[in-house]
Design a protein that fits this description.
Shape: globular
CATH topology: Rossmann fold
Helix content: 25-40%
Distance between the termini: 40 Å
Number of helices: 8
Radius of gyration: 16 Å
CATH superfamily: Vaccinia Virus protein VP39
Largest sheet: 7 strands, mixed
Length: 203
């Protein structure tokens, strides 16, 4: 089974979740980092559920391996590109003002390779913005104590802490990391937040 077929099957199985933006609290963070009047690349855009929130005022290219999902993204006005983010990105150097990687890096064997490619296609001063699951939240820790994997999504290959994310973004400036999502985040963001959100600037 090809990677495209695997993700199309994965997305079909999780369809009720797949077209819904899981952690809406990350949307203002993304919108503020991306701005308006920019050429934006959304990596792993799927059907465009998140992309649609920063489409207005921007020219957005959506890249995904799932052709079926890209058809939905295209209907929203997103320029679709079918490609695998584990391979070199099919874009020229310094061709985007912002790159989005929402809930993507945890799926990759070599996220550092993609981050290097993102840096290449970003213009100087351009923004990288994204999110990853907060894999070390209390719910995941309790699953581990019960002898279960910290997460139930088999396509998740990596777990990120804030320190690991800062290391991954070491070649960027102005790195910002925050916790969002979850009803009990106000008590301890590190333990209860669903997502880590991050932004960084290409030197």
């Amino acid at each position: 089974m090809s990677l495209q077929e695997r993700y199309e099957e994965h997305h079909r199985e999780r369809r009720d979740e797949g077209d819904f933006v899981f952690v809406p609290e990350r949307i203002p963070f993304f919108v503020a980092a991306i701005g308006r009047g920019n050429r934006v690349l959304d990596l792993g855009c799927r059907s465009g559920a998140l992309t649609s929130h920063f489409l207005d005022g921007n020219s957005v290219v959506g890249l995904d391996v799932d052709a079926s999902a890209l058809e939905k993204a295209a209907a929203l006005g997103i320029e679709p590109v079918q490609a695998n983010v584990e391979e070199p990105l099919p874009f020229d150097d310094e061709s985007f003002d912002a790159v989005v990687a929402g809930e993507l890096l945890e799926h990759l064997q070599f996220p550092d390779a993609l981050v290097s490619e993102i840096r290449r296609v970003l213009r100087p001063g351009g923004a990288l913005v994204g999110s990853v699951p907060n894999a070390f939240r209390i719910q995941s820790r309790l699953r581990f104590l019960r002898g279960r994997p910290p997460e139930d999504d088999l396509t998740h290959l990596r777990m990120f802490s804030p320190d690991a994310m800062r290391t991954l973004l070491g070649d960027f400036d102005d790195v910002r990391i925050d916790f969002v999502g979850g009803r009990y985040t106000r008590f301890s963001a590190r333990l209860f937040a669903r997502d880590l959100v991050f932004s960084a600037v290409r030197p």
